[in-house]
From TrEMBL:
Coiled coil: none annotated. Signal peptide: none annotated. The keyword Aminoacyl-tRNA synthetase does not apply. The lineage of its organism: Bacteria, Pseudomonadati, Bacteroidota, Cytophagia, Cytophagales. Keywords: Hydrolase, Serine esterase, Signal. It comes from the Bacteria. Residues 86-316 form the 4-O-methyl-glucuronoyl methylesterase-like domain. This is Acetyl xylan esterase. One of its GO terms (molecular function) is carboxylic ester hydrolase activity.
Length: 376
């Protein structure tokens, strides 16, 4: 049966039957990092790739970086600005994407870097995105480098034109495949190219790279980090359905709702589960395990019921068991969602929930940066 109006009533949440992260498809018990890496993790990764997000192709022929100078640096007292054109070629065709990178002037050592995947305008007439959403000066003052790119420069956030970026230019064979490259994968691919730049940058400590996304780009950040082990910390703010939150709860945004409004985000296969979340052989609690033992951070807002804060917390509480049971981290969330009282910052996993509505705010950043300080 297809659901038309969203459910916000906890008593109507179905009983959850969730796949066990520690039992392989053939029924063996997974208890060691080796069994996790060689057996269970690939099984789970393949399921997410084919049934939820679609592929992120890893191959290309060449990549080059060129600095441009088109924008006034609004933080020139404390930061250098690099506007980088990243040109990637494959099969005789190329695509150029732009990242903007701020480097702290005061630090002599290599700086950790935070990449924000952004879907709001970053630069227009030299104006930066909202300073609460991307608090560049605050990050710089803490000795962090920070970069962003606009998702639309690799795949427009639009159901009819999303292929008019890297998908049609570099990876046209992905078009029409039920598990092919879609917009989230394309944005993630771009984050990986930004990482390629960080890795060869003399002023960046790429071992300490942090990937941040809000909402649709929070979903993207999680899938990117599952594909690319180079991110030390992955932060998904209010990523909700298809991100942090358990789909099978059908609370707030459902699989059908998201696939209908945003058919360009996920693999076409994901539509099979419209109104049929119970048929999914995975759920989002298996996603943090694909990132473990690298750090994962989630946050929610109480006024953001559409994203299902409780489902987001459960996704991490259950998912962090891979970090604790397999990798021996102190990563057990002892409180239930109802008992939460302040941020929970554990070893390699963290969570906070705040009052207010769906947004990435300075309050979120501040609490997350505490976690970063403890983790890096
Ligand atoms: C909403 C969508 C959410 C979330 C959000 C956002 O419209 O339903 O899944 O992605 O947009 O990105 O702000």
């Amino acid at each position: 049966m297809s659901q038309t109006s969203p459910n916000y009533d906890e008593s109507k949440v179905p009983a959850l039957i969730l796949p066990d992260p520690f039992v392989s498809e053939k029924g063996s018990l997974i208890q060691t990092p080796e069994a996790w890496e060689t057996i269970r993790r690939p099984e789970i990764f393949n399921l997410f790739e084919s049934e939820v997000y679609g592929r992120i192709p890893k191959d290309f022929d060449s990549i080059s970086f060129e600095l441009a100078q088109e924008t006034r640096n609004p933080f020139s007292e404390i930061a250098e600005l690099e506007e980088v054109n990243i040109r990637v070629s494959r099969n005789g065709r190329s695509h150029t994407l732009r990242i903007n990178l701020f480097l702290p002037k005061a630090t002599k050592e290599k700086a950790p870097v935070i990449l924000l995947v952004n879907y709001l305008p970053t630069y227009s007439d030299g104006k930066l995105v909202d300073e609460a959403f991307w608090p560049v000066p605050e990050l710089i003052r803490r000795g962090l480098a920070t970069a962003s790119f606009h998702a639309e420069t690799v795949a427009p956030d639009d159901a009819t034109s999303y292929q008019e970026g890297i998908i049609s230019t570099l990876y046209p064979e992905e078009i029409g495949k039920p598990d092919g490259l879609k917009a989230f994968g394309a944005w993630g691919w771009a984050a990986m190219r930004a990482m390629d730049y960080f890795e060869q940058h003399p002023k960046i400590d790429a071992q300490k790279s942090i990937l941040v996304g809000h909402s649709r780009t929070g979903k993207t950040a999680l899938w990117t980090s599952a594909n690319d082990p180079r991110w030390a910390i992955t932060y998904a703010n209010e990523s909700g359905c298809g991100g942090a939150a358990l789909s099978k709860r059908k609370f707030g945004e459902t699989v059908e709702a998201i696939n209908t409004r945003f058919p360009h985000w996920f693999a076409d296969n994901f539509r099979k589960y419209n109104g049929r979340e119970e048929d999914l052989s995975l759920d989002q609690h298996l996603l943090p395990g694909l990132i473990a033992p690298r750090a994962v951070y989630y946050s929610s807002a109480r006024g953001d019921q559409w994203a299902d804060p409780k489902g987001e917390y459960l996704g991490l509480q259950l998912g962090a068991r891979v970090a604790s049971s397999i990798f021996g981290k102190n990563a057990t969330f002892h409180s239930s969602f109802e008992e939460l009282n302040g941020p929970v910052h554990l070893e390699g996993v963290g969570y906070h929930i705040r009052e207010g509505k769906h947004d990435l705010t300075w309050e979120d950043w501040k609490i997350f940066l505490d976690f970063v300080g403890k983790t890096l």
